[in-house]
Amino acid sequence: MNGYRELFRLCLEHAYHGGAWRGWEIEPVGVTRRLMDGAGVLVRRSGADVVFLAPAERMHQLRREQDAAAQFVLLVHAHDPLFASYTQPVLPAGQLLVADSAQAGDDGVLPAGASPADAPLCRLALDQAASQRRPALVLRIELDTAAPERRFVVRFEAGSSFWKYYVTGGLAARPLAIADLDGIVAFRAGAADQERPAGALVFLSDRPIALRARPGERFVLKENGPFGERVLMKRMPVAGTGLRQRAVLDGQVVQVSEIFINQ
């Protein structure tokens, strides 16, 4: 835009989506909103980035503010209500995800880590927020008008879970096995839990599987008959993002996704 200079730009990436994540909106907290309004700062989308721009003739206002340790404190809100269910780490009620430009590497990547909700930055953000929504991220960006146009990238990790298939109905009495066509994940058969359908055949993955918006797993259900193997299901259903449960496996608390097959 003519007459405007770029302050910085922000990109959010999520492993669940396989790269750039666009399903979010930004909310400047009260003190940041006043700073932006006073300096005429605009926020614009540019592809996967959100760009913060200021009129060239008002850059001096931001510089004066910078002498008083000016900063942008921003809340990121996810459009998807299931965001937390496929994002790692799993946070208890008293913690929030926080990213700070002071921790950015030379590549501009900001690590997002858990922080107590009563920590100073989180308290400032929540106390001055216009909305009561729990944010997906609390973000702090230090203004550097001497070196503008920096690009910051926040990367979210996807959650993972052990996949547990319950086969019920007539199939449960047959000699079945689950195979991974990519040869990565193995499934072991076991007895059903006491709370689950009696007589169900249970298969548990040997490792946690990362959640993806478009899962690429290729699991097949096979029957080991007297004349060899026969494929009964060419593509097993995959785990849903909001269906993870806590369980104890080999003495460790883990996340488990339960998938039911009744045929």
Describe the structure.
With 263 residues, the protein is mainly beta. The chain has helices spanning 30-39, 59-66, 120-127, and strands spanning 4-14, 19-20, 24-28, 42-46, 49-55, 71-78, 87-88, 95-100, 109-111, 113-116, 137-142, 150-158, 160-168, 176-180, 187-190, 201-205, 209-210, 219-225, 228-233, 244-249, 252-262. The model has no long low-confidence stretch (mean pLDDT 88). The strands form 4 sheets. Strands 1, 2, 4, 5, 7, 9 and 12 form a 7-stranded mixed beta sheet that branches.
DSSP helix count?
3
Whole-number average pLDDT? 88
- Given as residue ranges, the uncertain stretches (5+ residues, pLDDT < 50) are none
Our count of domains comes out at 2
Q: Which class of secondary structure composition applies to the elements? A: mainly beta
Which outline best applies?
A: elongated
SSE ordering: EEEHEEHEEEEEHEEEEEEEEEEE
Number of distinct beta strands:
21
Helix content, binned percent: under 10%
Major beta sheet summary: 7 strands, mixed
**Rg from Cα:** 24 Å
How far apart are the first and last residues' alpha carbons, in Å? 60 Å
Range of strand content = over 45%
* Assembly of the depicted chains: single chain
In short:
This protein has 263 residues and is mainly β. The protein has helices at residues 30-39, 59-66, 120-127; strands spanning 4-14, 19-20, 24-28, 42-46, 49-55, 71-78, 87-88, 95-100, 109-111, 113-116, 137-142, 150-158, 160-168, 176-180, 187-190, 201-205, 209-210, 219-225, 228-233, 244-249, 252-262. The protein folds into 2 domains: 4-158, no CATH class; 160-262.
